[in-house]
Amino acid sequence: MRALVVYESMYGNTHRVAEAIGEGLAQVYRVDVVPVEHAAAGLVEAADLLVVGAPTHAHGLSRSGTRASAATEAGKSGGTLTLDPAAKGPGVRDWLETLPATRAKAAAFDTRLDAPAVLTGRAAKGIARRLRQRGLELVTAAPESFLVTRQNHLEPQETARAREWGRQLASSLTPAA
């Protein structure tokens, strides 16, 4: 079985979470973890499970303007933020509009500020809604959020939690022996 984890990442947090989810899925699946710009139709069509994640910008999925603002923030002199190598590619919002037909099951995740979701918003809700609109069946009751600090750094326990979430996804889809 094959899993494809597709992510959008500006500062590397969502990238690290995607890699950790992929590690968790690897107990059952052959896993590809790719930035959205490398999520070609052939990879999507070959997947049995499609996991999609993005950072939360302005209470939801990023737009070209919010990605540009994030890039500007990273470019400020004396700043501690650096852009992820794939940050200048397309966003998940745009990619989902062109998602090819697939028989895959799906799951959604995001990274967001460590604060109540009512205050921060959640990109994963928008991802999940768009996946359903494209005809995919979600395998979890709710999308998952992984938390970052106010300084835009992943909270210390989040990669371990993402790895465990990936394991849980894999085991929930594996037929009982």
From TrEMBL:
Residue stretches making up the Flavodoxin-like domain: 3-170
Classification via Pfam families: Flavodoxin_1
One Gene Ontology MF term: electron transfer activity
Region called Disordered, residue ranges: 58-86
Entries under InterPro entries matching the protein: Flavodoxin/NO_synth, Flavodoxin_CS, Flavoprotein-like_sf
Protein name, as recorded: Flavodoxin
Species per Swiss-Prot/TrEMBL record: Phytohabitans houttuyneae
